[in-house]
Every structure is written in structure tokens, then in C-alpha cells.
Amino acid sequence: MTTPTPDDQKKARGELAQHAFETAGRVQLLAEHMEIVGWHIDGYSTNQLKELANLLRGTAIRAALSSDNAQIVSMVMGKPMKKLDPDENG
User: Fold this and answer.
1) What is the mean pLDDT of residues 18-34?
2) pTM higher than the cut 0.85
């Protein structure tokens, strides 16, 4: 097995960020719909599902920031982000 390059690791973190972000939205929506109809998953409250969604959003943000991909960071942060080049500030 080969060791992943730093670029491969950044790409994988970007993919993780996207999956965590999308899953967080789905879990949040599921919790809200279950709350509306008064249902719950055996052993889990809707508040626990909402907490899971929040944890997944946090994971998405951390993974996106470490991916070094401005487009993915923008997606999970919900606003346009631009990577700054430290050499430009001289």
C-alpha cells in the first residue's frame, strides 16, 4: 500500500467535507420532519439527531478548511471564500 501524497490527503479531506455537509443537511431535515409528525427513532430523540447534524457540520468545516480548496470551504461556510497567497502581501 502506498502512502497518500499531501495532495491526495487534501482531496480526500475535501470529499469528506462534502459528504459530512450533505449528510448534516439530510439528518437535520429528517429530525425536523420527525418532530412535525411526532415520530422518533428507537433510542434517539430528535434533539440528538439535531446534535448529530451540528457535529457533522463542524466536521465538514474542519475538513474543508484543511482541504485547501476554496470552493469546498465556500460551500460549507455558505459564503464565498478566497484563498489568500501569503507571498502577495510581501
Assistant:
1) 96
2) no
Q: Stretch 22-39: mean pLDDT, rounded?
A: 94
Residue with cell 440528538: 48
Three-class DSSP labels, 32-90: HHHHHHCCCECCECHHHHHHHHHHHHHHHHHHHHHHCCHHHHHHHHCCCCCCCCHHHHC
Distance CA 28, CA 31 (A): 5
User: 3: helix, coil or strand?
Assistant: coil
- 76 exposed, middle or buried (CB, 10 Å; 0-12, 13-18, 19+)? buried
* Residue 76 Cα distances to 39, 54, 82, angstroms: 29, 12, 13
Signed CA dihedral, 70, 62, 1, 5: sign only: positive
Assess contact for 70 and 81: CB atoms under 8 A: yes
Residue with cell 479531506: 13
- Which three three-digit cell numbers place residue 38? 411526532
